[in-house]
């Protein structure tokens, strides 16, 4: 099973693609599903679930949450978390209360990396995003991969797409057949973060979105 665990829709302030376009692109790229991880909101969840059923495509409900120390991905959530600029430990605990997974995206990338020692959160982190397709540099991904190995953490990958044409360049893979087993594979550290870097123009996806390309 292949799922892109980091996708933004028109409901993120810096993205603009319709959810159906994102799903169609995901299927084109050979994915089984995507995670909807809009910034600070879950406004696209209901539509995504409906369209997922229409296209026979798996949808993981998630959110990217900005904390005082950097972004956190909450996956397999059931309601919105209002964690904007809160302490990361508080946000992580809120994710866990929903039986969700705590993922640290792009932890070592300049500008959007996690601004605290991840060692302080090992008791609550489920996985590290070890490959981010939208960020052009590979060395931070390699550092994330090594960190996950050193501390026996789960591994995920995602496109971090802010435009539908960027979906699917990176994905998380597990040898399972159901979404529940996929979640358990992350918890049990049996996933692989795979993919390749998206075309460099994907850095400018907010502009692309406004141009409706």
Task: Give an overview of the whole structure.
- With 213 residues, the chain is α/β, with parallel strands linked by helices.
- The chain contains six helices and nine strands, in the order E-H-E-H-E-E-H-E-E-H-E-E-H-E-H.
- It has helices at residues 19-28, 45-55, 88-97, 139-150, 179-187, 205-210, and strands spanning 2-7, 33-36, 58-67, 70-75, 101-104, 127-132, 154-158, 170-173, 192-195.
- Strand 2 (33-36), helix 2 (45-55) and strand 3 (58-67) form a beta-alpha-beta unit.
- The relative contact order is 0.18.
- The mean pLDDT is 94.
Q: Nearest-angstrom radius of gyration?
A: 15 Å
Largest sheet: 9 strands, mixed
Shape: globular
Distance between the termini: 29 Å
Strand order of the largest sheet: 7-6-5-4-3-2-1-8-9
- Percent in strands: 15-25%
Number of strands: 9
Q: Could you name the ranges where pLDDT drops below 50 across 5 or more consecutive residues?
A: none
Number of helices: 6
Average residue-wise pLDDT: 94
Helix content estimate: 25-40%
